[in-house]
Amino acid sequence: MEAMPLSPEEMWALQFLDRHSGDWYCTRCWADAMRTAVRPLYRLSVLMGTDQALLAGYEAKADGPCKVHEAKGPRAGGVRGTRCVRSLGKVAVPRNDGAAKEVGR
Ligand SMILES: [Zn+2]
Fold it and tell me: How far is the CA of 80 from the centre of ligand 1 (A)?
């Protein structure tokens, strides 16, 4: 698989995840929170399953639970056509802001 550079939009999406480091987002909630389309985020979530996110300086995990949909109960959990991702923080850059802001709706 050939490594592609990430687009500015994708970098933005990764930065968003990084600000909520440790929180799982399914692609739908991620798109909701960023007010953007699901499709490019889904593509990005697939890339995050490879080492391309690492190349961009981000370490990420995919296929975890979505905390928003989990909280809504089993019927809402595991929404079809979504993948869950989270940032493990930007690699080799210490974080200092400590702000874990809740995403409203
Ligand atoms: Zn979700």
Answer: 10
**Segments forming the whole domain that contains residue 51:** 8-90
Ligand 1 centroid – CA 75 distance (Å): 12
| 44 within domain boundaries | yes
Q: Which two tokens stand for residue 62?
A: 């995919």
Smallest CA-to-CA distance from 44 within 81, 79, 85 is with 85
Tell me how far the alpha carbon of residue 5 lies from the centroid of ligand 1, in angstroms: 27
* pTM for this prediction: 0.63
pLDDT of residue 44: 83
d(C-alpha 64, C-alpha 92), whole Å = 23
How many domains does the chain divide into?
Answer: 1
Q: What is the pLDDT of residue 54?
A: 61
42-98 pLDDT, tens digit each:
888 877 766 655 656 665 665 667 777 776 655 544 455 667 787 766 654 444 444
